[in-house]
């Protein structure tokens, strides 16, 4: 009998029976709490927004501390994600907090691909967790979970509408992370403008099909407050680490020439609502939603790409061994096919190379014959020219000899005439 059939029968035949006395398994929640507290918790926040919207300041205000970090500039060539992890302790509860900030987001002239590094980063964290989960020897209880649990999307307080960059980015992220939109530096616009701006943002998100995180209302203990807070989204927040004395208390506030804005005054901003919903009420739900919804979607898509399914075409449970064998045979078949294609391609390229070499050899022979013939013609011309010069030299020598002979004969004739004249003169006298 198959294991699934056994499990089905066990589930159908489950009966409720009373206990005759105290057993003790009612302490399981306490055991779970103690174990969780001893192991500690992790929470990862992604802050998405343009440079200068106060992302770092808000994080410092939310967790009532000063996180180390260098201020970002507007000269980044592209979007970079900067991740920092901190160990926090409150009472006896430890929290490993990771804050990921998008450095340079929205600073480029061409913002078309600004969302891609963010999507790739989120997928990389899912992939790392999946690889750890698929190991033979898993250590998930000690594995540092780097999956993003909450994305605080910072919206510039323009008072008009969402930018196209914001809509595109949130649309690309809504299936991968829990998005909580917030209006940053909300003290930059008036209350009436802020109310209209919130309505406009909500309308644009709905009309563009952007799914933001909704605080759960299925738990009766938090249903009322979460339902109320869902109506206040997006939260209009202000961040400040500066403490000012207001009345008899020191409070976080921002001092302006026209007055003081108190961060924790709900009449001034929604910071308290954000802190309540993000940290004090729904932090565990954000972690659960990340694992059960976003990660499961990524995991399912990845496993389906690898050929794994829950059921076969006949709606019968799929065997992991059969799936592995099928994928292995498919992979070997594709490998053999690629090997054959590569072999044929190699043979074809060898033939093409041989043809090219033969053609080059033929061209070299033809060039050699042309040069050889040219050399012979030049040699013949030089020999003819040499013969002509030799003939000219011989003719010149002959003319020279004849001239010298004539000159000597002329000299002899002139000398005999002189002697004859001298003799005649002597006879005269």
Automatic annotation (TrEMBL):
Where in the numbering of this chain does the Septin-type G domain appear?
39-305
What protein is this chain from? Septin
Cited PROSITE patterns: G_SEPTIN
Outline what the protein does.
Filament-forming cytoskeletal GTPase.
Q: What is its main location?
A: other
A single Gene Ontology CC term: cell projection
Q: Does the keyword Coiled coil apply?
A: yes
Q: Which CDD domains match?
A: CDC_Septin (cd01850)
What segments bear the compositional bias annotation Basic and acidic residues? 419-429
- Coiled-coil stretches, from where to where? 321-399
Please name the Gene3D superfamilies in this protein's record: P-loop containing nucleotide triphosphate hydrolases (3.40.50.300)
* Similarity comment text for this entry: Belongs to the TRAFAC class TrmE-Era-EngA-EngB-Septin-like GTPase superfamily. Septin GTPase family.
Low complexity biased stretches: 407-417
Please tell me whether the keyword GTP-binding is annotated for this protein. yes
For this UniProt entry, the molecular function terms from Gene Ontology, in alphabetical order, are:
GTP binding
Q: Where is this region: Disordered?
A: 405-429
Q: Which InterPro entries match?
A: G_SEPTIN_dom, P-loop_NTPase, Septin
**Subunit composition and interactions:** Septins polymerize into heterooligomeric protein complexes that form filaments.
Origin: domain of life: Eukaryota
Q: Where in the cell is it found?
A: Cell projection; Cytoplasm, Cytoskeleton
**Which keywords, in A-to-Z order, does the entry hold?**
Cell projection, Coiled coil, Cytoplasm, Cytoskeleton, GTP-binding, Nucleotide-binding
């Amino acid at each position: 009998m198959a294991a699934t059939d056994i499990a089905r029968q066990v589930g159908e035949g489950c009966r409720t029976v009373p206990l005759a006395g105290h057993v003790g398994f009612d302490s399981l929640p306490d055991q779970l709490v103690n174990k969780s507290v001893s192991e500690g918790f992790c929470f990862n926040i992604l802050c998405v927004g343009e440079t200068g919207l106060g992302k770092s300041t808000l994080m410092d205000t939310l967790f009532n501390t000063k996180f180390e970090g260098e201020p970002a500039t507007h000269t980044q060539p592209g979007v970079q994600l900067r991740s920092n992890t901190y160990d926090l302790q409150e009472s006896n509860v430890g929290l490993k907090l990771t804050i990921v900030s998008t450095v340079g987001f929205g600073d480029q002239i061409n913002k078309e691909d600004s969302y891609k590094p963010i999507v790739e980063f989120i997928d990389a964290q899912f992939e790392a967790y999946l690889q750890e989960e698929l190991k033979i020897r898993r250590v998930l209880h000690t594995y540092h979970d780097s999956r993003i649990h909450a994305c605080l999307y910072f919206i510039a307080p323009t008072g008009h509408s969402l930018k196209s960059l914001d809509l595109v980015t949130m649309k690309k992220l809504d299936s991968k992370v829990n998005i909580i939109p917030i209006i940053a530096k909300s003290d930059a616009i008036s209350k009436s403008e802020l109310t209209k701006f919130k309505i406009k943002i909500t309308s644009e998100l709905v009309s563009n099909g952007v799914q933001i995180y909704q605080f759960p209302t299925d738990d009766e203990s938090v249903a009322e407050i979460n339902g109320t807070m869902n109506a206040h989204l997006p939260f209009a927040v202000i961040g400040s680490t500066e403490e000012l004395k207001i009345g008899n208390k020191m409070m976080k506030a921002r001092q302006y020439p026209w007055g003081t804005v108190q961060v924790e005054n709900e009449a001034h901003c929604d910071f308290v609502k954000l802190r309540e919903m993000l940290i004090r009420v729904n932090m565990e739900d954000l972690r659960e939603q990340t694992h059960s919804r976003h990660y499961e979607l990524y995991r399912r898509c990845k496993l389906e790409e690898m050929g794994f399914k829950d059921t076969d075409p006949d709606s019968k449970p799929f065997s992991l061994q059969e799936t592995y064998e099928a994928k292995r045979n498919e992979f070997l078949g594709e490998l053999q096919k690629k090997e054959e294609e590569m072999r044929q391609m190699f043979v074809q390229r060898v033939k093409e190379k041989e043809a090219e070499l033969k053609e080059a050899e033929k061209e070299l022979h033809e060039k050699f014959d042309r040069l050889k013939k040219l050399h012979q013609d030049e040699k013949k011309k030089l020999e003819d020219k040499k013969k002509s010069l030799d003939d000219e030299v011989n003719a010149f020598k002959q003319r020279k000899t004849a001239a010298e002979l004539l000159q000597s004969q002329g000299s002899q004739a002139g000398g005999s005439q002189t002697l004859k004249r001298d003799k005649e003169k002597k006879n005269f006298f």
